[in-house]
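Protein in question kept in full:
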Amino acid sequence: MSESGHSQPGLYGQGRRRRRRRDRDPAGPPGQNLSGPSRDRDYVPRERRDGSEEPTGPLLQKTPIILAKPPGERSKPCAPASGPPSLEKPIMLIKTRDEGGKPGNPPDIPPSASGAGTAKMEREGQRPTQPVYQIQNRGMGSAASGGAVDPVIGQTKLLPPEKMKHSIKLVDDQMNWCDSAMEYLRDQTDMLVVGVIGLQGTGKSTIMSLLSANSPEEDQRAYVFRAQTQEIKERAGNQSSGIDFYITQERVIFLDTQPVLSPSILDHLINNDRKLPPEYNLPHTYVEMQSLQITAFLFTVCHVVIVIQDWFTDINLYRFLQTAEMLKPSTPSASHDSTGSSGPDDGSEYYPHIVFLQNKARREEFCPRNLKKMHMAVDKLMAHSHLKYKGTLSMLDCNIFPGLSRDYMETEVNLFLLPLMENDGEDALTRAGSGPPLFSLLPGYRGHPSFSSLVSKFRSQVLAMSRSQLSHTILTEKNWFHYAARIWDGVKKSSALSEYSRLLS
C-alpha cells in the first residue's frame, strides 16, 4: 500500500487476474495442487477417458463376487489388508462386478493406483457373471473352533453297531474275568440281558444261538454259540466252559454258561490231576461251588434267566436253584444310610424273571392235561422263591392251544415246551408215506406246531419281557459291564459262599 492509502496495481491486480483464470479453467495447469475446500465446493464432473461422463446422481453399489481360491494356491501368500487368513476358515476373494452386471473392460484405474494392483487384475482375467462359492471342509480343526464337524466323522457315529460273528469269553474256564467284550458295548440304556443255566447235554448253546442270531435251517457249525460235536457227545463231554458273551444288533446280551453240576467237568478234574484252589479240598465241592457262583452271578446281572431241562423233572435242580438264590449277593443300594429318601423300596433285593424251558419235549407232554400238571408241579416247587417265575410268559397267548382259555390253567408259571429239533420236511414225508394214498401229500400228525414256529414264538415272548432296573441307577451297556465285573469279583470273594463250601467239605 502506498503512502496515499491506495493499493498498488502491481500487487493485487495480478492476483485478481489469477483467481479469475482458475475459475475459468477448472482442471488447472498440470502439476498444480488443486486440493482444498474450494476444490470440493466447485467440483464439476470430468470426462472419462472413453468419452463418457460420470453420472451426477448417487453411485450404485456394485454387486460383490465371492471366489474361493483353489486348494493348491491357498498356501501361496496373498495381499489382504487385514493380514494372513486363518487356516480354520474358508479363504474367499471378494471382487466387484461391472456396473451393467456384464463382463467387459475393467474400470479406469486412478493415477494413484499402484502397479501391483494392475498386475493382479490382469493376472485374474475375466470375471464370471454369477457369484461362485467354493467352501471346503477342513475336518475336525474347524469343529474345534466352532465350525461344522467333518461329515465323514459325523456319519461314522450314525452307522449301526458292529455285528458279532461269534461269541466271546466273559469268564474263562479258570473262572477269571475277561475284558474282550468291552469293545462291542455302547453308551445306551435300552438293553436286555438273558442268561441260561441247565444240566449237561440239555441244549443250552443251541437254544441260545436260535434266540440270538441263527435259525434252525442253518448248519450248527455256524452257530454263534458252539454246540456239542458228535465226538464230544460220544465221550459224554461238555462243549461250553465258563461264560460266553454275545450281543445282537438289537442290543440284547446273551450269556451262555457251562453246565451246572457237570460230571464231565468233575471227571476232567480228577483224571487230569488239576490242582484245586487252596480253599477247596474235594473236586466235587469245587464243581458245585463253580455252578453256584455262575448261577448266583446270573441272578444278579440278568433280566431273564432260562432254566433248560430235557425231561420233567429233576428235584435236585430245583434245590440247586433255591441254594443259588440264598447265596445270591445283595443288590447294591444307593446309599449306606438305611433311612433314605426313596421310601420302602430302598435296599430292596433284585430278582430276575426265570423261565423254565422243557426242551426235547415229547408229543404226550403237549397234551393239555399233562401240561396243566406240569404247571402245578413247578408252582409248588417254587412256592417259597422270590424269583419271578410266573406271570410273564404264557403258551396260551401264543395260539398254540387255540381251544383252551386262560382260565384253564389255575396256576400258570413261566413254562414253555419245545419239541425235538428235526428236519420238518423229511419227517413229514416219512410219516405221510405210510398212510392211505388220499393223505400221502399231507404232513404227519405231531400233536404240536413245528419246531421253527415254536422257537419263533418263544423268542418273541422272551424279548418282550419287562426290563427291570438291575441296580439303584439306570445302567448303560458299558456301565453294566463294569457292574457285572464287580459282582463277579464279589461272588468269588463272598463270605456266604465260602461258609457254604466249608459246610460241604
